[in-house]
Amino acid sequence: MMNEKKFDRIENYLDDQLNENQILDFEKDLMDDLDLEMELNLHTEINEAIMEEDVMELRAKLEAIDVPASPEAKRKSRFQSNWRIAAASMIIFIGMASVYHMLGNKIFTNEDVFMEYYKPYSIVINMRSSSEAENTDKVIEQALKSYESKNYRAALSLFQTILDKDSTNLTSNFYSGISNIQVQEYPKANKNFIRVLDHKNNLFIEQSEWYLGFCYLMTNEREKAKETFIAIAEGNSFYRTKAKEILSKLE
After folding, report:
1. Looking at the whole model, is its pTM more than 0.70?
2. 3-state DSSP: the chain helix, strand, coil percent, rounded to 5?
């Protein structure tokens, strides 16, 4: 805790109550005393952070009890000085609490949530060798290789050749959805995932529901995104825990 003399010097310096020689002495001490410099910076930040009327009100109360005129008052003066220091500490505490409160109530944008939780899906299906595969499987294999190498537009082109013939192909729809997210074609990705979900029972149901939530976020359909993540949070999906975290940030 700072001593009374240092406290008074800082206050007088900030209030322009020092004469020229005292100012020179104080600024010389600042160069040699790191603690004094830190205390000055702290006082300056406090004065800037708190509303001026609050500062004036506090100073008026301090000044009203500041000048003792009798021995008894002198004894009280030490208590009053400590009260002044305690008051300054309280101001610091309130300021820190206010900052903590503001950080604790941060508003998360759709993009904030997307950036924190979204990751492209890895390839989890077995690709047949070209010698054993039919024509469609060969194209899917090539598309998945492009996807795996993060050449998403090439992958989309290959998947599309399959979807042009069979719009319900689950693998092509799902990985096209992820690829469309990667190239920021969110409405197209949305359609891919809905096709997978409409098929009902398949390998990509949970994943498609999860990624559909991100599509809604990035098309600014926040309520639809919340409904999607609520459904995930209330189910037995692998993504249940993360869906609950997302919902806490979308409230």
Report:
1. no
2. 75, 0, 25
